[in-house]
Amino acid sequence: MKYIDEYRNPELVRELLEQIRRTVSRPWVIMEICGGQTHSILKNGIDQMLPKEIELVHGPGCPVCVTPLELIDQAIAIAKKENVIFTSFGDMLRVPGSHSDLFQARSEGADVRMVYSPLEALNLARQHPDKEVVFFAVGFETTAPGNAMAVFQAHKEGLKNFSELVSHVLVPPAMEALLQSPQNRVNAYLAAGHVCAVMGWWEYEPIAEKYKVPIVPTGFEPVDILKGILAAVRQLEKGEHFVENQYGRAVTRDGNKAAQEIVNRVFEVIDRKWRGIGTIPKSGLKLRKEFRDYDAALKFSVGDLQTEEPAICISGLILQGLKKPNECPAFGKQCTPRTPLGATMVSSEGACAAYYRYHRFKTE
User: Fold this and answer.
1) Is 85 helix (H, G, I), strand (E, B) or coil?
2) Structural domains in the chain, sorted by start
3) Which of 51, 67, 301, 348 is the 20 to 30 Å CA partner of 90?
4) pLDDT digit string, tens, across residues 131-156
């Protein structure tokens, strides 16, 4: 705990806040990409302690939140098929589709199971050769290596009853898409530390240079986040723009090469639709041709479902940093963790869930 407590040290937090106050001289908008960072910011009241010149906005860094509605409907359709064991991480089970969610499918008789790893789902396929075992492969670059390894191992063993419904998205193209938007407000990014632990920060260097924005890979504890904000503000005040790593205990420039290799071996880059945002070029992954027998969408022919988001839900604007959750007319009323209209309310990394959990009902 000592190692963790260092990054929650109140004296360090006060010192960093004072350094930020002495440094900032004008308004800046800083986006934290990761939903885990959003929850830490609200839980610890970091946004309320910062000087008024600094506004933190919440980005599309919750993979559950940006999984397209049609993928949720496809998952439910597959789960309801005979002879299927549908597996998923727990935070996907209550994400609303067009009419229901995976929990409801389970209550209606579907064999839906929560697992902690895609390799656990792979083991179910070994144990139940008479069943089709499907894993919902959702996530950013962080979970992609494990999901790739499960497919690679199934292919190696010749397991024909395992497949993945893939909804992987990539962070750098989303950051670029937000910066290219006419509505963009972002002056600097706090990059997701766990993504950078896998991919490194080399991908962000051309983005920082092209769009003249500081990008700071940052951890998840209060001291991590405040060090990231201080680094971003220092660059902004000096008119500088480069990648500055503030998560040195976990992140290197090149990242985890072995993890990158298995991802590139099994997946290829494609255009991908993001829930609430739209299609972002070269922002997703799909299984390569030699692994297409493990593509659940193809295996079960569920790729042509048409969907429509609830009109009142503004999660797309929230994911782009254009609105805060408590500015939504449905927040805390029609939309709660028990009755979520969008994934941002139900996901453990969702901004709406964070605002609800930490009682941020009033607009500031």
Assistant:
1) strand
2) 2-64+171-237 (3.40.50.11750), 66-170+255-299 (3.40.50.11740), 315-357 (no CATH)
3) 301
4) 999 999 999 999 999 999 999 999 99
